[in-house]
Design goal:
Elements: E1 5-12, H1 18-27, E2 35-42, H2 50-55, E3 59-63, H3 69-83, E4 87-90, H4 97-105, E5 110-115, H5 124-133, E6 143-146, H6 149-156, H7 158-162, E7 166-168, H8 182-192, E8 198-203, H9 212-225, E9 229-234, H10 240-249, E10 256-258, H11 265-271, E11 274-277, H12 286-293, E12 298-301, E13 315-318, H13 324-335, H14 346-351, H15 356-376
Parallel strand pairs: 1-2, 1-4, 2-3, 4-5, 5-6, 6-7, 8-9, 8-11, 9-10, 11-12, 12-13
Helix pairs in contact: 3-4, 8-11, 9-13
Length: 377
Amino acid sequence: MPKPIRVAQVMGAMVGGGLETTIMNHYQLLDHKKVQFDFIVQDDSTFVPEEGIKSLGGRIFTVPSYKHLAAYMKANEKLFRQLQPDIVHSNMNALSVFPLRAAKKAGIPIRIAHSHSTANNKEIARTAVKNMLRPFSKVYPTQLVACGEYSAEWLFGKSAVEQGKVHYIKNAIDLDKFAYNPEERIRLRTDLGISDKFIVGQIGRFTSQKNHAFGLDVFSQLQKIMPNSVYVTLGSGELMEETKRKAQALGLSDSVYFLGQRNDSQYWYSVFDLLLFPSLYEGLPLTAIEAQAAGLPILASTNITGEAFIESDLTYNLSLDKAPQTWANTIKAIAAHPTNRTTSRRDALAASGYDIHRSAADMQNFYMQLISQRSKA
């Protein structure tokens, strides 16, 4: 039998975020006799799903952090020369310039740059680095990929999008897995002792991007007008302890729950009454798609692309320039008109490309077409 196409997935620091979930969602559904992954992860990763990867026949290779750039570049080039993958697929957004340069030096013919995100001017240092690297985003890849048009334009430029040079791999999910589950809603609410509360949820790593500090300011105002509300967060990260201290300083410790990294997040969309999404920036957030699959209303910042919102009756957007009081009043207004959570959102989301079964098949075909085109060249 012919060997499978070997794809080196350059993941950066794996931390249990949406980017990694997207790649793993697709990986699980590939025909591994046809396409197989090697995961290139940094040594500062905190959440590498080793068991899941190895159970599917994948391999994991560790390199230094890109923060030690010389060592990172040297390790990547050496690894690519050793592995000789058919394709190098970098998921590091603007930073993909580094592993793809190493891949080119190692003679890897097919090199994919995948844009998963954007930037925000409030993250001054991080955005400055991204803007410095963006002009090089098309130098080393042979293919451009993005999760959506907004992310594609941000990294590769509007002309690349208009000329059809970008292939799209949506942040697709198992739509049935995230459907509203009333049994889990009751069970998990009972476990926390908040069965009768209005639950505002936020899911994401505790980083400046996710803007949990603003979320707490919003909830602090919400408590004044909806005393029966609680705020539940899922995720971990470097700003978690700082956020806990702020909750305590605001006198919210008894009504804010920090649940950390969870492996049952699909059920929490059923538990929540509203998803708070005050991010400074996003590409095309997986969390927004998952919430809509569960029929969960979302209050999001206007910094998030409209591509993420398929179900208009579930989605509300406010500028981060609006006061936390305005956000709180909007939550109260949304709560006054609850949606029918049992209405299936599957067809609309699938029609927009968010069915993981279709998307995984498309990814597999994309890789196979690249190999076929290369062999004919």
